[in-house]
Amino acid sequence: MGIRAVSFDLGHTLLFPRYEWYRSIVADAGVEIEQRDLQKREAALRSWFDGMILDEGRKGMDDGLWEQYFRRFFSGLGVENDAIDTLLRRLYRKHLKGVGLWTVPAPGAGETLRELADSGLQVACVSNNDGRLESMVEYQGWTGYFDVMVDSDMIGIAKPDPGIFEYALNHLGREPEEMVHVGDYYSVDVIGARNAGVEGILYDPLGAYGSLDCRVITELNEIVQLVS
């Protein structure tokens, strides 16, 4: 039957956060840190995050989990515990403005989307988002590359619940074996997609994961060759 559609996660897959926001906020708490160290801290938290999803059998993520994540994130950077509440409030207020925190394209993201669309494959974005997915994609000038954009907040289903992938498949008119999904979290993107019958491919540019039972790419444009 062959692959006829490629789905992408958004955050930490097609888009990365404004790391200067993190650096500015923690600097006000007396911590000076480089972007590379921020990314290493994100990578170090992946096993904890996956454990929370897999061990608790969550069908979707919630705000409480992300608050736990960011508390661990800031604490691991050396921020004192009594300053973390203030940092969380500041980051949240900044994120609510405009298209928010996620505005930095992953290397090769736009070119990869264009190549896939030009090849005749259908392209989807399946994101745990807050209702701003379409605005975030439009901000990047990528709207024309997607056949469907699925925002968890808009449909009431969040990864790793397989229902969000089934929603994308229905709108694309595809069977599960005709689509692959690319994302950055094993528990959310790979297992969630797999539970919907879709192959999940892990995007791991920093090598945060060890050996896994799925295909792994370190550059987005690798997906073009995998599905061609």
Q: What are the key terms here?
A:
globular; alpha/beta; 11 helices; Rossmann fold; 228 residues; 14% strand; two-stranded antiparallel sheet; six-stranded parallel sheet
Please outline the helices and strands.
Layout: E1 5-8, E2 15-17, H1 19-28, H2 35-44, H3 46-56, H4 63-76, H5 81-96, E3 102-105, H6 109-118, E4 122-127, H7 133-140, E5 148-151, H8 152-155, H9 162-172, E6 179-183, H10 186-195, E7 199-203, E8 216-217, H11 222-227
Parallel strand pairs: 1-4, 1-6, 4-5, 6-7, 7-8
Antiparallel strand pairs: 2-3
Helix pairs in contact: 4-5
Brief characterization of the structure:
The protein is of the alpha/beta class and 228 residues long.
Overview of this structure, please?
By secondary structure, the chain is α/β, with parallel strands linked by helices. It folds into two domains: 5-15 and 104-227, 3-Layer(aba) Sandwich (Rossmann fold), CATH 3.40.50.1000; 17-96. The protein contains eleven helices and eight strands. Strands 5-4-1-6-7-8 form a six-stranded parallel sheet, sandwiched between helices. A two-stranded antiparallel sheet has the order 2-3. Helix 7 links the parallel strand 4 (122-127) and strand 5 (148-151). Helix 4 (63-76) crosses helix 5. The longest helix is centred in the middle third of the chain and has 16 residues, at 81-96. It is globular, with a radius of gyration of 17 Å.
